[in-house]
Amino acid sequence: MKIFDFLKILFSFSLPWLSASSLANSDSQLPEVACRYEMKVTPHGKFKATSTKAWFFWRKPGMVQTQDADGHYGEIWQRTANGSIQYRKLYHVDKTAIEYMPADMPTNNMSFDWIKLSSMLDQQELHALKPVKKTRVLDRSAELRKGKVDNRDIEVLWLPDVSLPASIISKDKTGRAELRLIAIEPLSATHRKPVDIEEIANYRHIDAADFGDMENDPFVKKVMAFTEHHNH
Amino acid sequence: MQLLKKFSVATISSVLATGIVQSAEEPAPEDWFNAGRQTVIDAGHLNPNEKHAKNIILFVGDGMGVSTVTAARIYDGQQKGGHGEENSLSFEKLPYLALSKTYSVDQQTPDSAPTMTAMVTGVKTIGDSLSVNQFVAHSEPDANIVNANKLTTILERAKSDGMSVGIVSTARITHATPAATYAHTTNRDWEGDSDLPAGATVPDIAAQLIDFNINGGIDVALGGGRTRFIPKTATDPEYGIAGKRKDGRDLTADWINKHNNARYVWNKEQFDAIDPNATDHLLGLFEPSHVHYEADRIAHDKAGEPSLTEMTRKAIDILKKNKNGYFLMVEGGRIDHAHHSGNAYRALTDTQQLAAAVQAAMEKTNTKETLIIVTADHSHVFTIGGYPQRGNPILGLTQGVGASSPDLDMLGLPYTTLNYANGTGYTGASNLQPAGSKTFTTPNTASWPSGSEGHNPASFSPAFGRPLLVNPQVQAPDYLQETIIPLGAETHAAEDVAIFAGGPKAHLFHGVMEQNVIYHVMAEALGLAEQRR
Ligand SMILES: [Zn+2]
């Protein structure tokens, strides 16, 4: 499961979207950070095993990048000078990027909200939860918020200084899911860096719309098999 | 037969292409009889045009199989307020028809590369190869080997003969179908230099378009695919994303420099401002990759882009200035993509747009001197089934003659008339959408703003039974028709596709033909066959 799939599970409620262009440059005050998150999903029931997964999350002005702990798979969002957001899935082992082209993004309902990308939750989602107490976590001041969304109990530990969650816990009758920040440091100080944009530019690029015509492509075949394998 | 009240005789006559009855009444038995008789009388007066063609326009609906044409005809007719079945798309009124066998040298079900190669070179080849013969291995990087095995295309022959040539597509202009007309390579995916393997000497497809050096170069190229024409140090004018060329070339600037009286445009305003009489070489690249589906074009495009019809009109206006005539290829390139996504609505509306482009071409040309061919490269696993009554909404649930509610299957559940044999509309849960009907867009309910990426699933769980379908849902533009076999993308199909033709030598299309015969009819029409002898 990828980091955003997890967040989809946590928050399945619909909210009005802020447009990325109207918020242009509003992330310039957000500090550049490198984070490591861990996700744990514990389904109820005897035979269902807990699954754990770790990600890296990097943020700097105009770019958000994530990567699996093993470094094989990642995603990158870049905001261009005119407010468009370019989204690519990155397969680092194959040095290949899958692009979701602008012509197909509105068609596919892929409207991105830059604030949400940079902070994982937007203000509206945060304010849908009640502040419970102020505390400290990882040497930073934090704010605990709780609430019920779509029959799920949601608990968010928010770091206002960096505008990121230190944890998100979601519980319902099917189980418990938790996202926890394990480490956070300035981007300049981290030894695990995001993949350089220049390097990604040299990856092979495939438009997602072309998948149907690439059934014999070794990479496309492998990606299908890969994900299938990991979902079972 | 309450349904038949809406039926207009004018529409029957249009399907029969005769225009005999003008009554607003529904057709009586004798109307059917007379219209049928009139069609035969007209056929008897159909005189084969044995003259050479001055111009040829080859329309290719990518993936536009016969079922797609039929469903689009009904959809279009229902949009116009009729029952739909009696309607005919513009190209269905062309007088000559044949079936085309689409297999390639190594594929029972082909892709667009060898099929378009067959149409434009007269020779079948292997999958993924563009206008090179079957003896070169797939992904051959050596330009000398590719050159030694290249097949001359109809576009190249026309240009050598002093004609003007143009290509128009809603796909990237470097995509397989348009590329086969001007490029020679053994891997259709080598569209830009960054797609080539290290050490390859065969030029990328975009460079082959710009460097095409017969008689002053290609005259008109309109479509998508901008990023493979601009260097990675430059940014896209519409979206600001980086270009993809590693060699530093700006092919849009090269187009201007290498051609006489040339222009480059990337949005509709610039496109509209082009005076065909003052422009001899026009390059238009309207999106970084494929242009929009017609259903989404106006609502969603940032900078505005012309429709396939508008591009076709502009191309003809530029090309027709040459008194030696022209060859123009027009592709409805995204019918194929909509089908791969399992979305009938966008496949049908893009087919409708291709028909509008053909109509525009018919209006702009003289059938005595212009050969118009409309065909497809291959089909898709798209079916029109059940026993719906006359005029039943083509995207809707099947409802039988005289029935007041939709027909039920043996599980007691309604079903749609349009379905796919395989693909993304499988009703088991996918990694992107829950069990039940699938939609083209994953609903934007998630908090993480990657939101939706369309339904390109990477995995499915088994479906149990079928979902309960209701009419507004299945007729919505984003509904994905059900499939039996779950796949990440719906596939092409192997059955024959139709060739519709009118104009000089169009009568040479007859019966069931190999797809490569299309080239030979075009060569015959241009008189190139005699020259060779
Ligand atoms: Zn295809």
Defining key terms:
heterodimer; A: 232 residues; alpha+beta; outer membrane lipoprotein receptor (LolB), chain A; twelve-stranded mixed β-sheet; 5 helices; 12 strands; globular; B: 533 residues; alpha/beta; Alkaline Phosphatase, subunit A; ten-stranded mixed β-sheet; three-stranded mixed β-sheet; 17 helices; 29% helix; 15% strand; disordered N terminus; binds zinc ion
Note down, in words, how this protein is organized:
The complex is a heterodimer of chains A (232) and B (533). Chain A is built from 5 helices and 12 strands. With 232 residues, chain A is α+β, with helices and mostly antiparallel strands. Helix content of chain A is 16%, strand content 42%. Chain B has a domain at 55-381 and 491-526: 3-Layer(aba) Sandwich (Alkaline Phosphatase, subunit A), CATH 3.40.720. In chain B, α3 crosses α14 (344-364) and α4 runs parallel beside α16. In chain B, strands 5-6-4-3-7-1-8-16-2-17 form a 10-stranded mixed β-sheet, with helices on both faces. Chain B has helices at residues 9-15, 29-44, 66-79, 112-121, 143-148, 154-160, 176-182, 205-210, 251-258, 268-273, 294-300, 308-319, 335-340, 344-364, 471-474, 517-526, 528-532; strands spanning 55-61, 96-101, 164-172, 220-224, 262-265, 281-285, 326-332, 370-376, 379-380, 382-384, 418-423, 438-439, 479-480, 483-486, 492-493, 497-502, 512-514. Residues 63, 336, 340, 492 of chain B line the site of zinc ion.
